[in-house]
Amino acid sequence: MHGDPQALGRAVKQAQYRQQRALDTTLAAVGTTLAQWEALRAISRAPGASARTLATACFQSEQAFGTLVGRLLAQGLVERRPGHGRRNEHRLTPLGEQVLAAGDEAADEALAACFAPLSDAERTALSDLLRRLVTE
């Protein structure tokens, strides 16, 4: 039963869903969404990156990411500048950096609660196994 691929896939999906719900709730309390926080994190990690690169980092299509960036621009969280060729570059504003910091703190709390049933050794093993799945 434990080796059944469908059961394993469902268990991974259930854990991911639980994590996403916890993050949605916690991030809403600091005034952002999971998608917005992920975009702010991606922009922070790669300032000046293209929309294509950032969309990939956020697991979104370029069109969906463009819509999301439009909302972040309207909220004053990011700025967009012309880059090389037709490319636009994205950077966080000071307000975007504040929202990202608040989101990081909230996410740390939510994720700690999600993984609390596991020991440190189990979390390390799970991380190693998941990393192995996504790098092969």
Descriptive keywords:
single chain; 70% helix; two-stranded antiparallel sheet; 7% strand; 136 residues; mainly alpha; 6 helices
In short:
With 136 residues, this protein is mainly alpha-helical.
Task: Write a structural description.
The protein has 136 residues and is mainly alpha-helical. Helices cover 70% and strands 7% of the residues. The protein is built from six helices and two strands; from the N terminus they run H-H-H-H-E-E-H-H. It has helices at residues 5-29, 34-45, 51-57, 62-74, 94-115, 120-135, and strands at residues 78-82, 88-92. A two-stranded antiparallel ribbon has the order 1-2. Strand 1 and strand 2 (88-92) form a beta hairpin. Helix 1 packs across helix 5, helix 2 (34-45) crosses helix 5 (94-115) and helix 3 crosses helix 4 (62-74). The two termini are 24 Å apart.
Question: What does the secondary structure layout of this molecule look like, with pairings?
Answer:
Layout: H1 5-29, H2 34-45, H3 51-57, H4 62-74, E1 78-82, E2 88-92, H5 94-115, H6 120-135
Antiparallel strand pairs: 1-2
